[in-house]
UniProtKB/TrEMBL annotation:
Keywords: Glycosyltransferase, Membrane, Transferase, Transmembrane, Transmembrane helix. It comes from the Archaea. InterPro entries: Ceramide_glucosylTrfase (IPR025993), Nucleotide-diphossugar_trans (IPR029044). Pathway: Lipid metabolism; sphingolipid metabolism; Sphingolipid metabolism. It is a multi-pass membrane protein. This is Glycosyl transferase family 2. It is found in: Membrane.
Amino acid sequence: MSLTYYEIAVIAFTSLVFLGLLLISVVRGRDDHRPGNYSPHVTVIVPCRGKDLTLERNLRSLVSQDYGDYRVIAVVDSLDDPAVETIRRVGLELMVSDARCEACSGKVRAIATVLERVRSEVYVFADSDAEMPPNWLRDLVAPLGDSETGLSTTFPIFYPMGGFWSHVKMAWGLVGMGLMESRITRFGWGGSLAFRSEIMGQRELEFFKSGVSDDIAITKICKAKGLKLAYVKSATPRVNSDDDFSTFIEWSNRETALSISASSKIFTYGITFYISHLFLIAMAAVLSIYISPAFVILLLPISITIARNCQRAGRRDPLFVLCNLLVLPVYTYNLVKGRLMKEIVWRGRKYRLISPDFQ
């Protein structure tokens, strides 16, 4: 069977896309967990607003850490917040947010309240919707024993406790875990993030209070100082999720919009990556049917990615494989939608997407 020049050009281009995605799929980063004797005094800051799913379990996991010298402070906007009853039942120290900032989010204000009032060698941010393993704090703090490391972070498994879209959220979240495994795409995740107090001077604190996202601000501060970001897989928390379609789409669009506001490169890289995957799947089908079944090999990069995600999540069932395939068009939509968004709604409040650089 002879091929036209056009067909040869299409196959050549498809082969280049295949090789690029194959290289990305097989290259793996490393876990920066390093056992050691670094065990400074730690203050864990937990902003709370409303009653998260499994909130009491999540808060109890924070006071059950196998770490010696630490305190946990929950921060609320008001003592009328529904989370206060649970906070008091668990026995956490409680503060009311009162930091002065204009464009900041409620979470940033809550964290800044503790940073301004409490002195500590290391500060840790913890989301109230995350359930931490007992080794979480010990493993998360350990990399900060290296003076060249600015922050230590991890990324959660979104554990499905609802219908179909909570399973899609689990697969979607593994995109973030994949980004963490590479030093090039790594970022600080504010749901579980540790840093030494020395990087947060007055100028840094004012910058921190100027934005909507806590983790984007800390990441920018560390990168501006030339400090490394450590990823600790062994500290992975569990975020229990009962999302339906509406809550999942709102959440995924918001998270993507925040990421794009931090760096326009995320949109460029992301849209190229996911469109390339969709293109390769389409070409695998077309070329296998019209030229040779051997072109099914074009599915190898996505197959490797799905197999790795199954390993990360500890699942190999057909539903989870389907969810991983669905993430491709969903995340492409998130990127386009997020690029167009100028504001987000976060825990009942509207914020304009402003993400200045740290100078």
